């Protein structure tokens, strides 16, 4: 009897020791997990407390700078000066807080210990897999590419320590045209494009259902909110800074969804027909004004050059005559026509001087003849 009873006793003692060791290991693992979770929670609480204290100190120390100006109507207007660096810093702090919240949500999604029924179901599924081995391989295997990740659920619980996401490549979402109102009350239609990638697959699949639709609506709302504080000219000239502001604002929200916005760009800006017509008229008026100014300046320069040339030619009559002949030659070469030319000024002056002595001599010859006729009339008795 002793020989027959020894093996069962040894087996019972071995099974008891193995069960005790497994229970002890489970307790140690559970305690380690609790300690790790407690440490992570304490670090989060410390960071949150530190962030709140720094924010209170900043609000207490920083005073709003106001400026007052006196208008024409003797009214005092005050304006508040806002520091852009503080706004960007607040967005970055909001993003950090959102990342902490996402980590907390991820810890909540992690799986806990399985129960007895769950283990039985797992064992039965493995037995079924072995019984239908040739056919079950084709339905149970899933190939995951190098640039992809897989999120594995078992009995409705997320398996920890597995791959962390579907596709790591950069994705794009095109935002369709939507209307916005600018600071100077212009109504515009703007479309944009958003580049993003997945960072946390657990949050991506457990926190949001339709990512593309949610991201599209978020980008539209963010663009409307930011561009409402900018004028039409700023939107056309400062697209790069606007895209950076939109990216920072989106990161503060999308980090809770498990995605990272890499870049946003304003693709196109459309104007209404009435606004296009008014802008075209204004641009045409500006172009005409510039043309008139340029023409006036060119006429001024030409008149100054002509004045200088006239002063130079007035000193040499020969040069004036050569210029006159050169002009005649150019006119005759261009078109064949009859040209009536006035006499030169020198020739006219010479003719006028020659006519003056001839007229004086004629008057002198006519006077003796008249005196002779009068004397004849007086002497003749017949007359």
Automatic annotation (TrEMBL):
Residues 139-283 form the Band domain. The keyword Electron transport does not apply. Keywords: Membrane, Transmembrane, Transmembrane helix. The chain crosses the membrane at residues 119-140. It comes from the Eukaryota. GO terms for cellular component: cytoplasmic side of plasma membrane. InterPro entries: Band-7_stomatin-like (IPR043202), Band_7 (IPR001107), Band_7/SPFH_dom_sf (IPR036013), Stomatin_HflK_fam (IPR001972). SMART domains: PHB (SM00244). It is found in: Membrane. The keyword Protein biosynthesis does not apply. Residues 1-70, 355-383 are annotated as: Disordered. Its main location: membrane. Plays a role in the regulation of glomerular permeability, acting probably as a linker between the plasma membrane and the cytoskeleton. PANTHER family: BAND 7 PROTEIN-RELATED (PTHR10264), PODOCIN (PTHR10264:SF127). This is Podocin. It comes from Geotrypetes seraphini. The lineage of its organism: Eukaryota, Metazoa, Chordata, Craniata, Vertebrata.
């Amino acid at each position: 009897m002793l020989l027959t009873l020894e093996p069962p006793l040894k087996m019972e003692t071995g099974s008891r020791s193995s069960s005790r060791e497994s229970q002890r290991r489970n307790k140690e693992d559970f305690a380690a997990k609790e300690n790790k979770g407690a440490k992570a929670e304490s670090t989060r609480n410390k960071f949150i407390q530190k962030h709140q204290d720094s924010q209170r100190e900043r609000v207490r120390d920083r005073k709003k700078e106001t400026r007052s100006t006196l208008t024409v109507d003797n009214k005092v207007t005050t304006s508040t000066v806002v520091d852009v660096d503080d706004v960007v810093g607040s967005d970055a702090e909001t993003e950090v807080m959102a990342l902490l919240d996402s980590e907390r949500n991820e810890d909540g999604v992690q799986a806990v210990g399985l129960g007895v029924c769950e283990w039985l179901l797992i064992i039965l599924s493995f037995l079924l897999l072995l019984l239908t081995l040739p056919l079950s391989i084709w339905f149970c295997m899933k190939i995951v590419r190098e640039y992809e990740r897989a999120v594995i659920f078992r009995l409705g619980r997320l398996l920890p320590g597995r791959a962390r996401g579907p596709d790591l490549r950069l994705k794009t979402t095109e935002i369709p045209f939507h209307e916005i109102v600018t600071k100077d009350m212009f109504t515009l239609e703007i479309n944009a494009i958003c580049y993003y990638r997945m960072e946390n697959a657990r949050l991506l699949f457990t926190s949001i259902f339709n990512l593309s639709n949610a991201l599209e609506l978020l980008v539209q709302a963010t663009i409307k909110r930011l561009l409402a504080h900018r004028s039409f000219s700023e939107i056309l000239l400062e697209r790069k800074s606007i895209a950076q502001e939109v990216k920072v604002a989106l990161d503060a929200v999308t980090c809770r969804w498990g995605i990272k916005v890499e870049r946003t760009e304003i693709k196109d800006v459309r104007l209404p027909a009435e606004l296009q017509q008014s802008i075209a008229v204004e641009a045409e008026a500006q172009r005409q004004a510039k043309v008139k100014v340029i023409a006036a300046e060119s006429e001024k320069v030409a008149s100054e050059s002509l004045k200088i040339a006239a002063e130079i030619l007035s000193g040499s009559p020969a040069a004036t005559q050569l210029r006159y002949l050169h002009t005649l030659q150019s006119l005759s070469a261009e078109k064949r026509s009859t040209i009536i030319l006035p006499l030169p000024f020198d020739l006219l002056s010479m003719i006028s001087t020659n006519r003056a002595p001839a007229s004086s001599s004629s008057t002198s010859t006519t006077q003796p003849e008249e005196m002779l006729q009068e004397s004849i009339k007086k002497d003749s008795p017949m007359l």
